[in-house]
Automatic annotation (TrEMBL):
Residues 21-218 form the PNPLA domain. Keywords: Lipid metabolism. Signal peptide: none annotated. This is Patatin-like phospholipase family protein.
Length: 334
């Protein structure tokens, strides 16, 4: 925890560092985020105050579960809720395992350039059955009717990212507006699920919007504005060499498209930080927000973003816990 504010004024050393966490989307790969959050929560203490958490797609599942657990009972309950949520999202039963294997194989074949028949999710019943299962899992762990009452002045800001297909704009749902439909809309990948209608407009997966939402976390009163922003990033930022095969090209395109909006939003925060430091913006009205990234640090084929195999999800969760421990160790050593 820093003992000074960005404008040079001395801070009360007993004040916790205000932290916001943004969880990037990425399908099954966001089981990694579950592992990160569970590890962070295990070490959470009075040095930090969570003032906001956001997510897109699978990242929204994690953000919501952690938020709900924290505001209802605290860090240990948050760890239990997000862990149990992923346990229930994993493949269960022979038929489910067969479907998961088929979907993952088709995704890999498509990315490799195999000519596969293009089928709209509106033409077959399977995708909607899958969406219904996600709805049931979410509602089994989250009492959505209580969310408005849980959104008090001390509760962290909760933000879920989607895109409004009809208006062609990003749309975020915050706090009491986070319904099960909003979370499903954030995960409604166009080639897998039908769009979700909310307030007369259709919504798709947050990959086309803020992935994850960041600006909503920053638009808070001065006493709640994050001093640090922790990004749990699923898509690798860097790539060594040149993608040459169709599979690798498809993989890298997927990574880049998932990072575009994130890098734009972070770039603006960094610009504001520079303006605060050089005096362009007054330090008594604006402050620096330090950006930290917790990266996967390992590549997985893009087709595995639809893979719900329990062993694979456990691998991702363990990797997340490992990366979170390294992140915390670096902070303790700095």
């Amino acid at each position: 925890m820093s003992d000074t504010q960005a404008d040079g004024a001395t801070a009360d050393i007993d004040d916790p560092t205000r932290v916001a966490i943004a969880c990037q989307g990425g399908g099954s790969h966001t089981a990694f985020t579950c592992g990160v959050l569970r590890e962070l929560l295990e070490s959470w203490d009075d040095d930090y105050e969570l003032v906001g958490i956001s997510g897109t797609s699978g990242g929204a599942f994690n953000a919501l579960a952690v938020w709900y657990g924290l505001v209802t009972d605290g860090p240990e309950t948050a760890r239990e809720v997000v862990g149990s949520l992923w346990d229930d999202l994993a493949v269960s039963g022979v038929q489910d395992r067969w479907v998961n294997s088929m979907v993952t194989s088709l995704s890999r074949m498509e990315s490799a350039g195999f000519p596969l028949p293009v089928v709209s999710p509106y033409q077959i019943p399977g995708p909607e059955a899958g969406k219904q299962r996600i709805r049931e899992v979410l509602e089994a762990h989250i009492d959505f009717e209580t969310i408005p009452d849980l959104c008090g002045t001390d509760a962290p800001e909760l933000v879920v990212g989607t895109v409004d297909i009809n208006a062609g704009v990003f749309e975020t749902f915050t706090n009491e507006d986070v319904t099960v439909d909003a979370v499903l809309a954030s995960a409604a990948v166009p080639n897998l699920f039908e769009a979700v209608e909310i307030h007369g407009h259709l919504h798709w997966d947050g990959l086309f919007s803020q992935n994850p939402p960041v600006s909503d976390l920053m638009h808070q009163p001065p006493e709640r504005k994050p001093e640090e922003l922790w990004i749990i990033q699923i898509n690798p930022q860097e790539f060594e060499g040149e993608p040459t095969t169709s599979e690798v090209i498809a993989d890298r395109r997927n990574e880049l498209s998932g990072n575009i909006s994130l890098n734009q939003e972070l770039g603006f925060i960094e610009q504001v930080n520079d303006w605060v430091e050089d005096g362009t913006l007054p330090g008594d009205e604006f402050q620096r927000t330090e950006i930290q990234r917790i990266n996967m640090g390992k590549r997985f084929h893009c087709s595995t973003k639809v893979d719900r195999d329990p062993e694979f999800l456990d691998e991702l969760r363990n990797l997340g816990a490992e990366r979170a421990r390294a992140f915390l160790d670096d902070r303790d050593g700095s």
